[in-house]
Design goal:
The protein is of the alpha/beta class and about 450 residues long. The chain folds into three domains: about 1-120, Rossmann fold; about 125-160 and about 190-265, Serine Threonine Protein Phosphatase 5, Tetratricopeptide repeat (Alpha Horseshoe); about 275-445, DNA Cyclobutane Dipyrimidine Photolyase, subunit A, domain 3 (Orthogonal Bundle), CATH 1.10.579. Helices cover about 50% and strands about 5% of the residues. The protein contains 19 helices and five strands. A five-stranded parallel β-sheet has the order 3-2-1-4-5, sandwiched between helices. Helix 6 packs across helix 11 (about 245-265), helix 14 packs across helix 16 and helix 15 runs antiparallel to helix 16. The N and C termini lie far apart (about 60 Å). Bound molecules: flavin-adenine dinucleotide (FAD). Flavin-adenine dinucleotide (FAD) binds near residues 212, 227, 252 and 356.
């Protein structure tokens, strides 16, 4: 039998149950990645660059036998199956609203020609939907989900990497010109990310718990893009970690799973409040100067501006600073979280619908977990606590490089502030904090 492995967010050969199943059931197996114009349109330049880097690595590992095509996946897959007489297409499952809709279309199109669509692997540590309460319902809050998740760790099964002989098809891909202008990220792909994982586990993970919240330190794994594209499976990462010594790191991987599960159950949660009570909340338009200043990193709050400038220049932002910048948009500028999530999603190399939208809902207080709306980040206090010497700020806000430590978090108090070319704070945080709470209370009172 002839089979096709349709790679999507599983751009790896190691720890891949989909590939194993295809080779176990078929004599000859073709591998394809389809550049879907709908997905490409939503991916910013950083994510495209990572994708191309990861594909180039995969292609090399498959001795140039990966077919990379462009177009509507249903049509591309039907054409491929026709030309090689394939009877089954194997995939790893995905959780986003679009991917589910797309897979349903492809499944129906293939079934119309008696070709099976077989979903094998999944993007979470354990199969989607497998972690449930005793009564069969899903966990709604993180802590008990994490407990159940941790209890399963001793049974974690990782798929060994086996060498397979992929079938070859010469294929002339026609791509839109803008794609040929994207430079593949040289640090992307399975080979490099395995090295990054090894390095993290040998030299950084012991400092993770104490330093993970300090954005000036390079103490986190930086594996988020690899996990998003399935260049590494979370199983592989978890299997590298000692659960007794590095629980904090594991709990972050579990947050990723929890958000993927949430999206799997509530597909609309990527753009709608999970907590419907917040639908009545009054918000400001994102079509505004305030929003533009936030995007450009010109708010006058050094830690917020450093984060937004890190995002614009690197396509990445430290987690603590993601929380601070998101809180500033929602609670100081009163702009709906979806506007911020849209911008983050387009700019982040690790932009992931589940982690991004639910990260924003966590900050906004509109999600399922116990993050009350009245938790409002004070950008100055956060800055003093997590970037005490201002090293992170100085790295991205060049106007503040020469400002003495004692003024770095509140440069407007510095007597030479007017010479720096840096803006005054665009809002009074205490006033906006009160305004955010007022709006929240008003929402609660609405029938
Ligand atoms: P590490 O600290 O090394 O963590 C290891 C892995 O655990 C990460 O790679 C990631 O896969 C996962 N993880 C860590 N923290 C979280 C978290 N809070 N929620 C979910 N998963 C987590 N993460 C994304 O991967 N894509 C996004 O689009 C995204 N958007 C976010 C938006 C907001 C507003 C917030 C507050 C967080 C967002 N996160 C997102 C989560 C987190 O900020 C990043 O995963 C993390 O900063 C990536 O850096 P790292 O790989 O060094 O993380």
């Amino acid at each position: 039998m002839v089979g096709v492995v349709w790679f999507r967010r599983d751009l790896r050969l190691a720890d891949n149950f989909t590939i194993q199943r295809a080779f176990a059931e078929c004599k000859s197996v073709y591998g394809i990645f389809v550049m879907d114009p709908v997905v490409l349109r939503r991916a910013g330049s950083r994510r495209l660059s990572y994708l191309l880097g990861a594909l180039s690595d995969l292609k090399e590992q498959m001795q140039d036998r990966l077919i990379v095509a462009y177009g509507d996946p249903a049509k591309v897959l039907l054409d491929l199956c026709d030309s090689v007489e394939a009877k089954s297409v194997y995939v790893s499952g995905d959780v986003s609203h679009y991917s589910k809709w797309r897979d349903q279309r492809v499944r129906e199109a293939l079934l119309g020609r008696s070709i099976a669509f077989i979903e094998v692997d999944y993007p979470t540590t354990f199969p989607l939907g497998s972690i449930k309460k005793g009564d069969g319902s899903y966990y709604q809050v993180f802590t008990p989900y994490y407990r159940a998740w941790s209890n399963l760790l001793p049974n974690l099964a990782v798929a060994k990497r086996l060498e397979f002989r992929w079938s070859h098809l010469s294929h002339q891909g026609g791509y839109p010109t803008y794609l040929s202008e994207v430079v593949p990220d040289p640090l992307a792909g399975e080979t490099k990310e395995h090295r990054r994982l090894e390095e993290f586990c040998t030299s950084k993970i012991d400092r993770y718990e104490s330093e993970r919240d300090l954005p000036a330190k390079d103490s986190t794994s930086r594996l988020s893009a690899a996990l998003h594209f399935g260049v590494l499976h979370p199983r592989t990462v978890v299997a590298h970690v000692d659960p007794f010594r590095h629980e904090r790191f594991l709990s972050e991987i579990c947050w990723r799973d929890f958000y993927a599960e949430t999206l799997n159950q509530f597909p609309q949660s990527s753009w709608m409040n999970l907590n419907k009570a917040f639908d009545a909340m009054e918000t400001e338009s994102s079509d505004s100067d305030a929003y533009e200043r936030w995007v450009k990193g010109e708010t006058g709050f050094p830690i917020v501006d450093a984060g937004m400038r890190q995002l614009a220049s690197e396509g990445y932002m430290h987690n603590r600073v993601r929380m601070i910048t998101a809180s500033f948009l929602v609670k100081d500028l009163h702009i709906h979280w979806t506007a911020g999530a849209r911008y983050f999603f387009s700019a982040l190399v690790d932009g992931d619908v589940a982690s991004n939208s639910h990260g924003w809902q966590w900050v906004a207080g509109t999600g399922r977990d116990a993050a009350p709306y009245y938790r409002i980040f004070n950008p100055v206090a956060q800055s003093k606590k997590f970037d005490p010497n201002g090293d992170y700020i100085r790295r991205y806000v060049l106007e503040l490089r020469e400002v003495p430590d004692s003024y770095i978090h509140e440069p407007w108090l510095y007597d030479r502030f007017d010479t720096l070319g840096y803006p005054y704070p665009m809002v009074d945080h205490q006033k906006e904090r009160a305004e955010a709470l007022f709006r929240f209370e008003a929402t609660k009172r609405r029938p």
